[in-house]
Amino acid sequence: VFDNFPDIIVVVHFACLRFVGESKDQPWRYYHNNLTGSLTLFKSMEKAGVKNIVFSSSGTTYGEQPSPLKESMATGNGITNPYSFTKYVIERMLQDLFYADSSMKVAILRYFNPVGAHPSGDIGEDPCGVPTSLFPYTLQVLVGRRPKLVVFGSDFDTRDGTCVRDYVHVVDVARGHLDAVHWLQAPENSDGVLDMFNFGTGTGSTVLEVVGEMGKAAGKEVAHEIGPRRHGDLGATYCDPSKAKRVLGWEARHSLADMCCHAWNWASKNPLGYQQQ
Fold it and tell me: For the chain, what percent of residues have pLDDT higher than 70?
């Protein structure tokens, strides 16, 4: 790629396998794909003389710590699955590469729960197999591909008893990558820089709030029932995104209602996902 496009000056590294449950069943695939693939990319960048990179990481690198999660907190402790561990290791790779060559420019973006779809309804999330995340599973219930949603636990210490997670619109996340690219190229970073940023709303929504908003977007109730807690689920996980606003000028613009409306627009137009295209 670098030979064919010699004008590349910044790499945005999204590529990875990304399903938590699958990573527990197939850890070797995750370690090989995510870690070996990243090493290959970094070596190719070095060979091409490209020193600027934006890395798509994850809020799961914080492990099990109290919210709000801040960039100053430790990472790598209490991680419970291979997917999250690979994100942590890649962050460490980039830090070590920067310490060896401080002229590199590195922005590490720790997403919390990217959801929604492009407002046009032409691009959306279509996981293979049974979805393990709330938004795609709920959408499949609404289009008739699944009978009902099971809400895991209703006795957490939250406003309605269900888990709180920090959902952020995928378009906001995409825009944040552009902000990070521009920041890397800012004059004040000309000698090299490395920093980490949280991407989330900073508030979080409960499972039942998502179910309610998704029902409003679709104009019908989401069939659901309350089930037992899942082992290891935390009651509330959300971030402090203020550093991204202060340094990158980024903040989430879309509401939970926007996320649900755009996700439903995608699912209602594409009930079988990309299979029907």
Answer: 99
CB atoms within 10 A of CB 32: 13
DSSP letters for the chain: -TTT-TT--EEEE------HHHHHH-HHHHIIIIIIHHHHHHHHHHHHT--EEEEEEEGGGG-S-PSSB-TTS--STT--SHHHHHHHHHHHHHHHHHHH-TT-EEEEEEE-EEE---TTSSS----SSS--SHHHHHHHHHTTSSS-EEEE-S-SSSSSSS-EE-EEEHHHHHHHHHHHHHHHTSGGGTT-EEEEEEES-SS-EEHHHHHHHHHHHHTSPPPEEEEPPPTT--SEE-B--HHIIIII-------HHHHHHHHHHHHHH-TTGGGG-
Sheet harboring 205-206: ordered strands across? 205-206, 164-165, 236-237
Q: What is the mean pLDDT of residues 215-231?
A: 96
Report d(CA 61, CA 205) in Å as an integer: 20
Q: Which residues are catalytic?
A: 83
